[in-house]
Amino acid sequence: MKIPNLLQRKALGYAALATLLLTAGGVIAQVKKGKVRPMTTAQWMKGVMKPHCTALKNGLEASPSKDEIWSELAVHAALINEASYLLMEDGRCPDGVWANAAGKTLREGSAEVLKAIEAKDTAGAKAAFEKMTKGCAACHEKHREKK
Ligand code: HEC
């Protein structure tokens, strides 16, 4: 067997390094953006997740009584539930932590919030809200860069 000379070994080293960098870059891009669609994860978080989560929290804390308020709260919960699907699309999901946070905790928690809202059960909706936001926290813990 021929032992690779120094130049060949160097070339192999660079090739390995390039592959590693490309792979790492790919993973970062997947978290921050999908593969084809232009919206970034940060835009979705700012435009949909945060406003609807805050509105839901404040609405439940104010102990809703009127039907119009309940139906507004249902809109917030339904959009967050829909987000649990969107976050799994377009190759955005990089791993099991993300999949579990979005496709399970956020999805099931928001569906429970919605069910409790439909039953006008404030305590039940608040409890389910706590469960739902564990999905936000679990994903951020691993995938949101600390500033
Ligand atoms: C499956 C993963 C995941 C889930 C679930 C998730 N997030 Fe995020 N979130 C991210 C990532 C990734 C970022 C960082 C995006 C970036 O900076 O590129 C982020 C960033 C944010 C930001 C900062 C956006 C900005 O202005 O830059 C807010 C606010 C936010 N998320 C709110 C929420 C709320 C509220 C929930 C739950 C209702 C939630 N997120 C659930 C992944 C997730």
Number of strands: 0
CATH class: Mainly Alpha
> CATH fold name, please?
Four Helix Bundle (Hemerythrin (Met), subunit A)
The sequence of SSEs as H and E is HHHHH
State the end-to-end CA separation.
52 Å
Kindly state the mean pLDDT as a whole number? 89
Portion in helices: over 70%
List the ligand species.
heme C
- Measured on Cα atoms, how large is the radius of gyration? 21 Å
Q: What sort of overall outline do the alpha carbons produce when their principal axes are compared?
A: elongated
* Count of distinct structural domains: 1
Largest sheet: none
Number of helices: 5
Residue runs with pLDDT of under 50 for 5 or more positions? none
Strand fraction equals: under 5%
At CATH's second level, what is the architecture?
Up-down Bundle
Given helix and strand content, the structural type is: mainly alpha
